[in-house]
Amino acid sequence: MKFCEKCGSVLFPGKKGNKYYLECRMCGKKIKSNIKRFKFETINKMEKKVVIEEKLTLPVTIKYCPKCESSKAYFWTQQTGIEDEPPTQFFKCVKCGYVWRGE
Q1: Residue 102 half-sphere exposure, CB side, CA atoms within 13 Å?
Q2: What dihedral do alpha carbons 29, 31, 36, 37 form, nearest 10°?
Q3: 79, 75, 71, 69: which is closest to 57 by C-alpha?
Q4: Cα-trace Rg, the chain
Q5: Is 85 annotated in the active site?
Q6: 25 vs 59: CA distance, rounded Å
Q7: Which of 47, 54, 85, 103 is catalytic?
Q8: In this structure, are residues 2 and 21 in contact, taking their beta carbons and an 8 Å threshold?
Q9: Which residue in the list 47, 54, 83, 84 is annotated as catalytic?
Q10: Which class is domain 1-37?
Q11: Active-site residue 5, yes or no?
């Protein structure tokens, strides 16, 4: 494995006509090479992901969702401005998960 003298990135082999070279994909620098042939292999990896289901423990109120018109929503208050302003009330639809601010 060779590295670019200009930026330190990995150099990748390339071919134009019957001439081979090493090329930096970061800065574009090309270096002549005495490589006679090369082969690219694509390796497919499957990644395992753990999904943790979010279970809200917020209080529920009767509030109509502007998106799906469900009648139940979680609610909470949060300080969004400066300290002398009242906190903002937020709602999250129990059915579709849409979040909106209270009036």
Answers
A1: 18
A2: -10
A3: 75
A4: 28
A5: yes
A6: 53
A7: 85
A8: no
A9: 84
A10: mainly beta
A11: no
